[in-house]
Every structure is written in structure tokens, then in C-alpha cells.
Design goal:
This protein is α/β, with parallel strands linked by helices and 355 residues long. The protein folds into two domains: 25-124 and 228-343, 3-Layer(aba) Sandwich (D-Maltodextrin-Binding Protein, domain 2), CATH 3.40.190.10; 129-224, D-Maltodextrin-Binding Protein, domain 2. It contains 17 helices and ten strands. It has helices spanning 7-13, 33-36, 62-68, 71-74, 90-97, 107-111, 157-167, 186-191, 202-211, 221-224, 237-242, 244-263, 265-276, 280-292, 304-316, 328-331, 334-343; strands at residues 45-51, 77-83, 103-104, 116-123, 129-132, 146-148, 177-179, 197-200, 216-220, 231-236. It has a three-stranded antiparallel beta sheet, with helices on both faces. Helix 9 packs across helix 14, helix 12 (244-263) packs across helix 17 (334-343) and helix 13 (265-276) packs across helix 14 (280-292). The protein is globular and about 60 Å long. The two termini are 38 Å apart.
């Protein structure tokens, strides 16, 4: 089928922001000669890196890029990428807390007593849109409908985003039926009418509307919550104590991978195609959206403004008790991020992107 997404949907999905062209990006930050050379490795340090969706969306591919381009290997790291059914799923969060993997870690999990900290902000901005079936015109129309809770069920990312959309119409989670399932079922579920609303990544919006043009973008989530902190990688305190140097080197490698993603599309697209198993037109669409809207970080990705807003949002939603709300410094290993950033050449900007 060759039907293209409607131009109105493209305008909704890609906000009209004044963005500097990538062609006039700031010069690449210089990596120190010692770091730029392949290190003589006495042994390869093994690490597991988690991604939040199986198979991953385009936004989750920096670890695949760092591995495929030899960035990890240059720092004597042997990385295994493991795929979870949701970044807020119990399996994902438990793997981080036990020191078994570096993977997505949200602030609520830290506040609830998991002994871990965020070490790198992979993608500070929300990349998804909330997509609904044709008969849904406003958020109020979601009352009584079936919404997606894939990737962790209650408390998972899709559930949390659905709750935020419902709030705009004064609705509660009790006013709808949330349906759990595998993350791979998000698009088929919407197309087949099994669910009426779901948060979809750019490539999945593209594919869903290509298959069923009547599907509508109800809201771009970055417009709904512009200060929400989307995805930060975390590490257990025990791992930070035991293998701090290795964790720092992993973060430096991931920072470098994100910068290559912005600057060398032709080099990274084949890696993204292999990792996501998505069609080339959809992956290219997502890549363009993510880079133009500065979804990926180019530095540490840390943001006190976003962190403080997200913590307060979690308190207001009851996800974090007010008396247990952690500070910015308590949820992030800021020093480790700064050390990794220095290894990657120091802070820089690429076009309008500078997180």
C-alpha cells in the first residue's frame, strides 16, 4: 500500500519549531588523542544494556549504534543488548536495581527505594504522539473506551501517558479500560480496533496511518508535557561502586553514539533498520523527526528543570509520596555524567540541540 500520511498529521506530529539546520551544526567536539585511539585491552569488560521495547523503536537504538560502530570496543567494553517489554516494567527496573544491566530508570523507582541513580539522559524529550481511532475527536471521547497499557501494565509508560491524556478532559483511569499486552501489539491492536488509544513512536504513527488513514493524532505528547523527562539510563549503586570506571566509559560511548546519529545519517540508518526490523521509509521518517526535534541528547541529557518538573508531576499523580520526593542531586550521578562528557570531548551543540 502506498498511501502517505496526511499532511495535517505530519504538521501535528512535527511541530513548527524554528530549528537550525543540521548542515550548519557546530563543529564536532574534539576527542582527546589518548581517548581517540583504540585502547590496548587486557580484557573486555562485559556489560548488559537494556532497551525499553522489543523490538526497539528508533529512539532506543543508540546502544546498537555504539556496538555496531565499535565505539564500545574502543573502550574495552563488550556490550550485550537486551530488550525489555517496557522501560517501566518490573523486569526492567529489577534488572537495574540488582546491578544486572544498565537500562531505563525513572524517578519514581528511585523514590520508592531502588538503590540506583540515573547516569545518562538518552532522550530527554518525549518522541511519541497519542494516536486514537477515527471516532475519537477529543480526549473526552475516550470515556468508556479501551486504552493501551502495553509495556508494563498499570504504572507502565503507556498507562502513564494515557492517564495524562485523560486528565486533560477531567477523566480518571477508572473511566476507561486499560488493556495490557506485548509492546509489539501496539499498532496491530489499534488498527484492528482492539484498543482506541495508544502512545506511539514516530515510525509507528507513520506505519499505523499508512495502513489505516483514519487513525488520528489526538495530541503530540511533547506538546502536552514539554518539560517531561522521557528516558534516562540508570545503574545500581552497587555497580557504581564496584565498576564505576566501566559505567563511565559506557556513558562516554553512548554520548559519542548519539552525536554520530545526529551527524552521520547514512552511517546509522542501516543499524537502525537491523535493530528495529521496521521498513526503511518509516525509520527515515522517525530519524528526521527525532533529530529535528532534539529528542536524543548530545551531552549528558541531564536537565534540572525537566527532572524537577517530572518529580513534582509524580508527586501530584501519587506516584511519589510528597515526603519521599528526592532532590535532583539524589536521582542523578552528576559527577559520573560530567566525567563521561569530558571523555567524549566536552559539551557541544548540534544545530539547536544541546541537552
Amino acid at each position: 500500500m502506498t498511501t502517505k500520511p496526511k499532511s495535517s498529521v505530519r504538521r501535528l506530529l512535527i511541530p513548527a519549531l524554528t530549528l537550525a539546520l543540521l548542515a550548519v551544526s557546530a563543529p564536532a567536539a574534539r576527542i582527546s588523542p589518548a581517548d581517540a585511539q583504540a585502547q590496548p585491552c587486557k580484557e573486555m569488560r562485559k556489560v548488559k544494556l537494556g532497551v525499553s521495547v522489543a523490538p526497539p523503536n528508533v529512539v532506543h537504538t543508540p546502544p546498537y549504534v555504539a556496538r555496531a560502530l565499535g565505539i564500545f570496543a574502543r573502550r574495552c567494553i563488550e556490550a550485550t543488548v537486551i530488550e525489555f517489554e517496557g522501560g517501566l516494567s518490573a523486569t526492567n527496573l529489577t534488572a537495574v536495581a540488582r546491578g544486572e544491566a544498565l537500562a531505563s530508570l525513572n524517578f519514581a523507582a528511585i523514590a520508592q527505594g531502588r538503590n540506583a541513580k540515573q547516569i545518562w539522559g538518552m532522550a530527554p524529550r518525549l518522541p511519541q504522539a497519542y494516536v486514537v481511532s477515527e471516532e475519537i475527536k477529543t480526549a473526552a471521547d475516550l470515556k468508556g473506551k479501551r486504552l493501551s497499557a502495553v509495556g508494563g501494565g498499570v504504572g507502565g509508560f503507556n498507562w502513564v501517558m494515557g492517564r495524562e491524556v485523560l486528565k486533560t478532559a477531567g477523566l480518571r483511569v477508572e473511566d476507561v479500560q486499560f488493556i495490557s499486552g506485548a509492546t509489539a501489539g501496539r499498532v496491530p491492536g489499534l488498527i484492528q480496533g482492539q484498543i482506541h488509544g495508544v502512545a506511539l513512536h514516530p515510525e509507528d504513527v507513520y506505519l499505523a496511518q499508512k495502513q489505516k488513514p483514519g487513525l488520528r493524532v489526538l495530541v503530540v505528547l511533547a506538546d502536552l508535557m514539554p518539560k517531561y523527562f522521557f528516558n534516562g539510563y540508570g545503574a545500581a549503586d552497587v555497580l557504581l561502586t564496584r565498576e564505576r570506571g566501566m559505567v563511565r566509559d559506557v556513558v562516554a560511548s553512548l554520548i559519542e553514539a548519539n552525536r554520530i546519529i545526529y551527524r552521520e545519517k547514512e552511517k546509522v540508518i542501516p543499524i537502525m533498520l537491523e535493530a528495529t526490523k521496521k521498513p526503511a521509509d518509516a525509520v527515515n521518517f522517525a530519524y528526521d523527526y527525532l533529530t529535528k526535534n532534539c529528542v536524543w541528547s548530545v551531552n549528558t541529557g541531564f536537565s534540572k528543570e525537566r527532572t524537577d518538573w517530572s518529580l513534582q508531576n509524580a508527586v501530584e499523580n501519587g506516584d511519589i509520596p510528597a515526603d519521599k520526593k528526592p532532590s535532583y542531586e539524589q536521582v542523578l550521578d552528576i559527577k559520573l555524567g560530567e566525567e563521561a562528557l569530558a571523555m567524549a570531548g566536552g559539551p557541544t551543540k548540534i544545530g539547536a540541540c544541546g541537552d
